[in-house]
């Protein structure tokens, strides 16, 4: 199994980020990282896209890699890290409910497993195959489909997790999909795969 987790943050300041994934075994490894404070110049200069009103996401589709999953709501665990979806045979991704809903201004964060222990492959097993421009659809509780286009796919060492780029404020509706990747290290993985996407359209 594989997933990052992070500590709660406010609009003014973010606390430590925890990034952890688990492989075929039951354990979970975590690595702490500190977020940066300055957004990239390209992100700061981007014109805001038309934002949607708040509506909780209930499903996620990524046609290019065959993903069609209901979305769980994830909060914070007792240690301040983000909850991860349960390890089950019918693996589902989860939306971090302290992030914006997909289509609101800011980075909406969705987490998924790349493997789920004895059950095999996770819902985000092919996330690293996504390419710039490919389509991601978040189905919202109000019936809207928020359509995003991939802007970047990054595989990064856990120790160098780009917390500010992932969780920091942006001036348009964006999406972050996160899983684990790279080589195995015992029961876990050494890297995280992060997909960045921006809202391109919405339809009822």
From TrEMBL:
<keyword id="KW-0732">Signal</keyword>
<feature type="compositionally biased region" description="Low complexity">
    <location>
        <begin position="27"/>
        <end position="39"/>
    </location>
</feature>
<dbReference type="InterPro" id="IPR042001">
    <property type="entry name" value="Sortase_F"/>
</dbReference>
<feature type="signal peptide">
    <location>
        <begin position="1"/>
        <end position="22"/>
    </location>
</feature>
<feature type="region of interest" description="Disordered">
    <location>
        <begin position="26"/>
        <end position="50"/>
    </location>
</feature>
<dbReference type="InterPro" id="IPR023365">
    <property type="entry name" value="Sortase_dom-sf"/>
</dbReference>
<dbReference type="GO" id="GO:0016787">
    <property type="term" value="F:hydrolase activity"/>
</dbReference>
<protein>
    <submittedName>
        <fullName>Class F sortase</fullName>
    </submittedName>
</protein>
<dbReference type="Pfam" id="PF04203">
    <property type="entry name" value="Sortase"/>
</dbReference>
<dbReference type="InterPro" id="IPR005754">
    <property type="entry name" value="Sortase"/>
</dbReference>
<keyword id="KW-0378">Hydrolase</keyword>
């Amino acid at each position: 199994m594989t997933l990052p987790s992070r500590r709660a943050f406010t609009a003014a300041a973010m606390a430590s980020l925890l990034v952890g994934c688990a492989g075929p075994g039951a354990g979970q490894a975590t690595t702490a990282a500190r977020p940066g404070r300055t957004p990239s110049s390209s992100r700061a200069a981007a014109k805001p896209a038309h934002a949607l009103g708040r509506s909780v996401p209930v499903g996620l589709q990524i046609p290019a890699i065959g993903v069609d999953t209901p979305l769980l709501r994830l909060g914070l665990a007792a240690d301040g890290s983000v909850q991860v979806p349960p390890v089950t045979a019918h693996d589902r991704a989860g939306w971090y409910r302290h992030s914006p809903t997909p289509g609101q201004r800011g980075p909406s964060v969705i987490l998924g497993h790349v493997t789920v222990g004895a059950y095999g492959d996770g819902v985000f097993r092919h996330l690293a195959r996504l390419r710039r421009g490919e389509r991601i659809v978040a189905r919202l509780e109000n019936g809207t489909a928020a359509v995003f286009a991939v802007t970047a796919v990054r595989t990064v060492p856990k120790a160098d997790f780009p917390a500010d780029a992932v969780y920091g404020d942006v001036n348009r509706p964006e999406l972050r999909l996160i899983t684990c990747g790279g080589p195995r290290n015992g029961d876990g993985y050494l890297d995280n795969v992060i997909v960045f996407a921006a809202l391109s359209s919405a339809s009822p």
